[in-house]
Amino acid sequence: MLRGVVLILARAGNAVKVRNTQTCLCNATYFTQIPSRKFADAPSPASEEDEVRFGDYPRTFSSRMSFRKSSAELQDTEVEQDEPDPNFRPRTKLRRRNTPYWYLLQCKKLLKKDKLAEALSLFEVEMLREERLQPEEYNYTVLIGGCGRAGYIKKAFKLYNDMKKRGLEPSAAAYTALFNACAESPWKQSALEQALKLRQELRRKNIPLNAITHHALLKTLARAGDLRACFQVLREMLQSGQAITQETFQYLLMCCVEDKEQGFRLVLQVWHQMLSAGIKPDGQNYNIVLRAARDCGIGDPALASKLLLRGQEESQLTAQGKGQRSRLREGTCDPEPLDVDAFERLVLTDTASDLAQSTLRSDSTQTQLIPVSSSSRLSPALKLAPSVPNLLDPSTCHSDVVALATASTASDRLALIGDLDGFLNKMSGDGLKPSIKTLTLLADVTQPGSQSVRSLMDAANRSGVRLDVGFFNTLIRRAAKSGDVDGAKALKTLMLERKLHPNPQTFCSLALACRSPKDGLQLLTDMQACGVGVNAHVFSALIGQAMRRLDYVWLHELLQQMHQLQVSPNDVIIKQLEFATQYPPTYDQYKTKNTYLEKINGFRGFYKQWLEFMPAQETPHPWEKYHHPETELRQDGVESGRGERERLS
């Protein structure tokens, strides 16, 4: 049946082309004729017998046609579909892919700004997840180093395990960063276990450690206070032919400081061995000695006398003769510069046996102990020689000085190492000048008084050191603890004369000098006048002063001030208040009567009500400055801390 299809054919040589296609409307339906293909070569013209009749298919070319049916309804549907889709996103041009080295540079920039969380997000999210780049060894190493400086031990070892799963060989810098992460971790016991596990893995794989990695391991063991393990690492360094330097003895001194009972005696023994090995101390070594004088005791005086007050010949373990000692170079040593076994036996000596031997020696020489006099400032040693010995200099420790008295305070221990002037002269003899840290430590161990303050300021002027707020805060705290209220206020005035602005630590030190509620209120008023915010540490110091005087009226007033100033109590304040609400163990309220202690009952009622409407302060996490809400750093750190606390409990 003919449906009105008209074909117009144009012949040009041997080519037949379709010039036009006419569409006709029939019963509101369109039929579109579309040729399926074109032919460049066509057969010769047909004869008369083969004349194409109207409506017949021509034989000279293919007549296959395809027709597409359309209607008004379908056209309306197509128009509706052509409307823009709001969820449609045009395909943008792909950006240039970055290289792993580019990500290394970006992570270094972020780590220099202490943005550890952003660096981890850049590596894990953008590089690995979005761009799907294959990381290199240096990408992991730089991030492990950042985690190591922050003490983020869990993330550091997670990156280390991922690196091994990808088939990347860790470098010596990666192992150094892992040991450094263990050293900087806030939880020493779990960090020590992780470091020892890594050390066993390296031994199993026969991976040698260089001097830098050995020092990182030594730092981890020193922070944990494992002195025997430190000597074992020292022995491994000597066996591998690595040099023993100032840094090596620095970590040994740090390990001795962890022993609070006899750390000062251990520090002096390691110091003597360092000098006998021909190694010249630096400023950091002197600072560690001051820390030991401040925080550590000397142990048993008889044992300390036997080990410290000996001749110079007895203290040398490895050098034999003056010719061999002169060949020891400064800062470096021969392959076996010292006898580690003898050194370990000397430091880790048996207290019981040596104490008996030292007692027999002291009885045979018929000597007696001379106590330390704070007024005369004599050294707490038996003065049988013309000069008082300085234990930092073994040449002054003569054999006729054989006994020490008990050095119970920091100023007594400073007198053993020459006092303020002798210590500074010893530093000057080694070509060193005190830094602001050295002077601050000296301010914390000297005898409180105007003479000590004047001597420290003269030493600062000679060395060209500019005093800061921390130095004056230490002096104010020392004066306040000794009960010198006028001296503490005079130091604050001196600090203001030097145009130094007080900080919260300044007022926290001044709070130790408050003796009455009037002084406490005046202190809070002065803080607000200076524009310094009142914190929980200041209130903790004031609460401690009120508890020493059993002044529950003052405590009641301090709690009200905390509520008015919206200062949340921390865990230290809660422990103080819980202790204040308890009766003394020897007090019986039914047998004796005490007007001060009877006020505990009233304070207990107010304290319970105060706890209901006062929000407690959350203890800050050690990695708080590295946290970012968009990363998993906070969650992992808290889980790690919770696991460590559960393990310790």
Architecture overview:
The chain is mainly alpha-helical and 649 residues long. Among the domains are: 7-79, no CATH class; 100-347, Tetratricopeptide repeat domain (Serine Threonine Protein Phosphatase 5, Tetratricopeptide repeat), CATH 1.25.40.10; 515-621, no CATH class. The chain is built from 30 helices and 5 strands. It has helices at residues 72-81, 100-112, 116-130, 137-150, 153-165, 172-184, 188-204, 211-224, 227-239, 246-257, 263-276, 283-295, 301-308, 312-315, 322-326, 340-347, 351-365, 410-416, 419-429, 436-445, 450-463, 469-481, 485-497, 504-511, 517-529, 536-548, 552-564, 571-580, 600-613, 633-648; strands spanning 7-12, 15-21, 25-26, 29-35, 65-70. A 3-stranded antiparallel beta sheet has the order 3-4-5. Strands 1-2 form a two-stranded antiparallel sheet. A hairpin with a 2-residue loop joins strand 3 (25-26) and strand 4 (29-35). The chain is globular and about 135 Å long. The relative contact order is 0.05. The model is unreliable at 1-42, 311-336, 350-356, 358-386 and 625-649 (pLDDT under 50).
